[in-house]
Amino acid sequence: MRNYLIFPILGVLLSLVFILAGCGGGTTGSGEAYSGSVLTVEYISGYYNGEYTDEVDAWQDADCDGDPTTNDPEFYSNHDAVIKISNRPRPNEEDKDLATDIVIEKYTIEYRISETDAPGAPVLSSRTVYKTIYLPVLEEGEDPEEHYIDLVDLDTKSEFRTQWEQGSYDPFQDLPVRYQVFYTFYGQNVFGKDVTITANINITIANYDYCE
Ligand SMILES: [Ca+2]
Ligand SMILES: [Ca+2]
After folding, report:
1. Which ligand lies nearest to the CA atom of residue 69 in the structure?
2. Closest by alpha carbon to 104, among 83, 128, 145, 132?
3. Can you give the pTM of this predicted structure?
4. 15, 37, 46, 58: least CB-packed within 10 angstroms?
5. For strand 147-152 and strand 127-135, is the pairing parallel, antiparallel, or unpaired?
6. Ligand 2 centre from 2 Cα, in Å?
7. Is 165 a member of any domain?
8. How many separate domains does the chain show?
């Protein structure tokens, strides 16, 4: 008898919670899940060569000290981003128990040329990255973990450089080029309900000096 009562009530509660929230977004990068959770992008920054930076180097100097007898190429690698996404119960007391852990399964990256830049800037391909990111429900006062994600990988740097060098202008004259990078993360909560969250970050791409 008890089972017959519990299941319909649980079903109604879950339906309400899933309908409550839509996926959010915005300039600071926040969003919500279709769940009892509130997902917030609390921090995002570019990360390269041990430093937090949004300046993306797309040209590697093969010989930093100018002496061909010594082998000292400039540091050159994928440019990552560090992101912190919190998963917290909705502030409403009645909903608190319904927040569940969320697993992100993939994210998309889209590069939009800043409107203030001259036309002719390289058009960079959007892509999808498959990566598992666990977002456990946080206790009050608990900080979310840092996760490393792609920002501008080597293929995208190459795409930028190739287009720039094929252009009819001095390769370094109008650098840096500004882009807004838009992320959409796709995952599920423990009930198998799809969730999405968006974030964005402003970057510049140029020939930056990592020779030291
Ligand atoms: Ca050298
Ligand atoms: Ca460089």
Report:
1. 1
2. 132
3. 0.80
4. 15
5. unpaired
6. 68
7. yes
8. 1
Q: Does residue 212 belong to any structural domain of this protein?
A: no
**pLDDT tens for each residue of 28-55:** 344 454 567 889 999 999 999 999 999 9
Q: Is residue 8 part of a domain?
A: yes
Distance (Å, whole) CA 188 – CA 193: 5
Q: Is the peptide bond before 144 cis (omega within 30 degrees of 0)?
A: no
Find the 67 Cα to ligand 1 centroid distance in Å: 4
Asked if 131 and 103 count as a contact pair (C-beta separation under 8 A), the reply is: no
Domain that holds residue 121: 2-206
| Strand 51-52 relative to strand 37-48, pairing | antiparallel
Q: Does position 23 have pLDDT exceeding 50, yes or no?
A: no
The verdict on residue 121 lying in a domain is yes
Q: Give the CATH number for residue 201.
A: 2.60.40.10
Q: Which residues are placed with Cβ below 5 angstroms of ligand 2, an ion? A: 57, 59, 207
